[in-house]
Design brief:
By secondary structure, the chain is α+β, with helices and mostly antiparallel strands. The chain contains ten helices and 18 strands. It has two domains: 19-146, Rossmann fold; 178-417, Phosphatase 2c, domain 1, CATH 3.60.40. The protein has a six-stranded antiparallel β-sheet with strand order 6-7-18-17-14-15. Strands 2-1-3-4-5 form a five-stranded parallel β-sheet, sandwiched between helices. Strands 8-9-12-13-16 form a five-stranded antiparallel β-sheet.
């Protein structure tokens, strides 16, 4: 029998959780529960067996189900399992009525998907407490579902924004590559080739070359601190300071009554440093190796501003890392830089590169460093020249990294092949 509570049900905080389905093969027991729940303000539906209950669920969408355990045909646990298998927008709280108290029986009910149990005879205050607990759970579930909807909507908006940003970055990548309009150019009997690989859509590395249409030419490799859009914007700005298209804006060139001439590399670094330091609100800096080459004599003057040392590859097989370091550009106002001088013979090569090579992280956690980089350079077959040499070098680095072939830094290089064309 059922014992009603002496006072009205008023504890359920979620007033919208009002639909209850009572399933029991005993008409008297259904009636008692229905009257009790109706007095508490619930909208109640009845079913005499589990099969009818499932049909009612499709149109009634109950928040709570109170089902007897033992019924003809489908049992309460079987009904619960079938109910859980139905597609629903919201969770339904399932209470089994039982005279069973064995642990095995309770475990069976839980495995079927039941949320709670009530032992016959049902007391009104206990039923009230169990539904109250279920209401709190359902309220939290609905609140979570609402928040998940907001999250899903926000995620969709973010994905749309990301798609727009990605499209812009793809275009920015194209524009950045336009800063390096050609990969290879010949100056007299010499050739300069370039490589640029960004670890993201855009990056802070750049390699370039320029000339005045005479025997002299310049080549450089630079690396702006950081990665991404900010570095790429700085790179784009710096590229304009070393462009052959607009010699009047090129910091490496000086106008004289007889035309433009090359400034000493140390002056180029100092002038570029003044420009970068003078940019208000800009905290980025850059490293650079810049070389001025006299094609007729093989004289090379270069500046190393915090950049990895250029690699000299003599025709006779000798190798040497050049330079002694120097300050990066853009860190210290009025910084001074020094020139270095070498002479090239026909067949010699000079390689300027960024630390994306030497600081590439190997599978054992160590960096490639200069010795590893030199070994990598020397592993490239003699038949590879110009851009093919740089491509082979990049592929060799990818192979060296193995599973860690995703680079953490941008990579660029400028290769001078003197007197080989």
């Amino acid at each position: 029998m059922f014992q009603d509570a002496p006072f009205a049900f008023a504890d359920v905080q979620a007033s919208h959780l009002r639909r209850v389905l009572v399933v029991d093969d005993s008409r008297a027991q259904r009636r008692i529960l229905t009257l009790m729940l109706g007095r508490w303000g619930f909208d109640v539906a009845e079913a005499e067996n589990a099969e009818a209950g499932l049909e009612i669920c499709d149109r009634f969408h109950p928040d709570f189900i109170i089902s007897d355990w033992m019924m003809p045909g489908m049992t309460g646990p079987e009904f619960c399992a079938r109910f859980r298998a139905h597609q629903r927008d919201a969770y339904g709280y399932f209470i089994l009525l039982t005279s069973k108290s064995e642990k095995a029986a309770v475990a069976s009910g839980l495995e079927s998907g039941a949320d709670d149990f009530l032992t016959k005879p049902v007391h009104g205050d206990e039923l009230r407490a169990r539904i109250n607990a279920g209401a709190r759970i359902l309220s939290m579930e609905q609140e979570l579902r609402a928040k998940n909807t907001v999250i899903a909507d926000t995620l969709a908006e973010l994905q749309a924004v990301h798609a727009v940003i990605d499209k812009d970055l793809q275009q920015a990548r194209v524009l950045q590559r336009s800063l390096m309009p050609v990969r290879s150019a010949e100056y007299g009997n010499s050739r300069v080739s370039l490589l640029l690989k960004s670890c993201g859509h855009v990056g802070g590395d750049l390699a370039g070359m320029f000339s005045l249409g005479k025997a002299d030419f310049g080549l450089f490799s630079l690396d702006v601190s950081g990665h991404g859009i900010t570095s790429a914007m700085m790179t784009a700005r710096v590229s304009g300071y070393l462009s052959s298209d607009y010699p009047n804006e090129n910091l490496a060139l000086k106008y004289t009554p007889d035309g433009y001439i090359f400034r000493p590399p140390r002056d180029v670094a100092a002038r570029l440093n003044a420009r970068v330091v003078g940019q208000e609100g800009v905290s980025e800096y850059l490293t650079m190796a810049y070389a001025h080459v006299d094609q007729d004599t093989g004289l090379v003057r270069f500046v190393q501003a915090g950049h990895p040392p250029p690699l000299l590859l003599r025709r006779d097989g000798r190798t040497e890392f050049l330079g002694v370091g120097g300050l990066p550009i853009g860190l210290i106002e009025n910084a001074t830089f020094g020139d270095h001088t070498i002479h090239l013979e026909a067949g010699d090569r000079l390689l300027l590169y960024t630390d994306g090579f030497t600081e590439a992280c190997l599978s054992d956690g160590t960096m490639l460093e200069e010795d590893g980089f030199l070994a990598l350079v020397l592993s490239i077959p003699e038949k590879h020249r110009g851009p093919k040499f740089l491509d082979a070098l990049y592929e060799a680095l990818q192979k060296k990294l193995g599973d860690r072939a995703e680079f953490d830094d941008d990579i660029s290089a400028a290769l001078l092949e003197y007197g080989e064309v």
